[in-house]
Amino acid sequence: MAPEHTRADPFGLRTGGEGTITGTVVCAAVIAYAGDSSTSLGRLCLAIVGTVVVYWLAHLHAVTIGSSLTHAHHPRAAFQHALGETWPILGASVVPVGVLVGASLLGAELRTAAWIALVASIALIAGYSYLAGVRSGLDRRGRLMSAAAGLGLGLLVVLLKVGLH
What we know:
Number of strands: 0
Shape: globular
Helix content: over 70%
Order of helices and strands: HHHHHH
Largest sheet: none
Number of domains: 1
């Protein structure tokens, strides 16, 4: 019997940081855009997950093609590499959608639940950015600057929301 292979980073939090941040930003942008105009929780969740899936597929394709061209990988090997690199984009939608659904189930109106999910997404982006600073060995100031950069990105999404509505 072959030894079972266990992955040291099963959720991609250490190796998939860029995908996690990117996926969370995509979720936040969809919530910002569609949160006020969506007619139902199901439609908003579908918009979020659908957009993340399309973005992930585009990124999967780009990484596959890039791997084939840059490293002369066979398309199958390039695709397998791309799957490993990009799947955290999909996983990043779980928390924002969970917060949205949870807030709604707790009685928040859809618009309020969308704001709660947007704020949670921004907090996640800032938290992921802070964690990246920790893992890269930055001092306290560097970590806070990293978190501030993530927060700034989230606030740009809020400006998009305010500007569009």
